[in-house]
Design brief:
305 residues, alpha+beta, Aspartate Aminotransferase, domain 1, 2 domains, three-stranded antiparallel beta sheet, 10 strands, 11% strand, globular, binds pyridoxal-5'-phosphate
């Protein structure tokens, strides 16, 4: 239950992404399913903090340790998020953030990796800019030298200075943006309490949820319409919404490469038919949030079984 990027990066290394089903409530990976997916070829576990709700990292780290695996977090949704008080970004071997236009803070395009491994950090810096050695550069730059060394065939993944400047300004607002999102999530939660047709996203007591997305699950058994028609009617009523995500195993590339069938991931396949991402962004107004809540109520009422 994630975006294309999580698995595609694995294929860049001619490795094979192995998918794991998600939990019914948080839509994070089901940690009970990790063990059975591990083989002697497994290198790393990549948990995705869905919508900004941190995965249960303790069992993930225990399994990783037992099998000598790295943990690389996909924290594209998880800024600012906490797990047992610790900020996401300072826990695993590496944590990847996205600053794409829709994310909690943005640089237009771009992202960030955090790691406590100095060697990896140096390697990432080098590979993000054509594999050029900064050490060589630093050695000579005092004299303003033109000298550099190519140490590896690298990439062009550097964040531009202009994007970084945007990012620094956004970072100062990160907490304020988050407070807005959290407030609106609380309004949604309260607004749907008396609606058995709508299940709100849960929040575990030991986490801080970053509230990148607010994903409700429609109890479609209680409705005369399905999720797609529900979204169509919401949109007709002026409420834009989306679906996060079409599970990876249902996409042609992964379906064919992995030989996956929908029933191989029963939870993801089932919840996919029920999920709707409601509007959530810091610049929303309370009136707008209330209008979304009212519209959902109206639609549920007129489509009840
Ligand atoms: C947005 C996103 C990414 C990566 O986004 P980029 O466009 O590469 O910055 C990765 N994983 C998830 C779950 C995302 O939502």
């Amino acid at each position: 239950m994630t975006f294309a990027a999580t698995a595609e990066v694995v294929t860049y290394f001619k490795a094979r992404p192995v998918l794991i089903d998600c939990e019914e409530d948080t839509l994070n990976l089901n940690t009970d399913r990790i063990q059975e997916a591990i083989t002697d070829k497994t290198k790393a576990i990549i948990p995705v903090h869905f919508a900004g709700h941190p995965c249960d990292l303790k069992p993930i780290h225990a399994i990783a340790q037992a099998h000598n695996l790295y943990v690389i977090e996909d924290a594209a949704h998880a800024l600012p998020a906490r797990y047992h008080g610790k900020m996401i970004g300072g826990i695993s071997d590496a944590t990847c953030f996205s600053f794409y236009a829709t994310k909690n803070i943005t640089t237009g395009e771009g992202g960030m990796v955090t790691t406590n491994n100095a060697e990896w950090a140096a390697r990432m810096r080098m590979m993000s800019l054509h594999g050029l050695s900064r050490d060589a550069w630093n050695r000579y730059s005092a004299q303003g030298s033109w000298y550099y060394e190519i140490l590896s065939p690298g990439f062009k993944y550097n964040l531009t200075d202009i994007a970084a400047a945007l990012g620094l300004a956004q970072l100062k607002k990160c907490e304020r943006f988050w407070k807005g999102r959290e407030h609106y999530a609380a309004l949604y939660h309260e607004g749907f309490q008396d609606l058995p047709e709508v299940t709100c996203p849960p929040v575990a007591s030991h986490v801080q949820h970053a509230w990148h997305l607010y994903v409700i699950q429609l109890n479609v058994d209680r409705l005369r319409i399905g999720r797609d028609e529900f979204i169509r009617q919401l949109q007709q009523a002026g409420v834009g919404c989306s679906v996060h995500f079409i599970p990876l195993h249902l996409h042609p590339y992964h379906r064919e490469r992995g030989g996956y069938r929908p029933e191989d991931f029963p939870v993801a396949s089932r919840v996919f038919e029920r999920i709707v991402s409601l509007p959530l962004y810091s610049k929303m107004t309370e009136d707008e949030v209330n209008r979304v809540i009212e519209t959902v109520h109206d639609l549920v009422k007129s489509n009840r079984r």
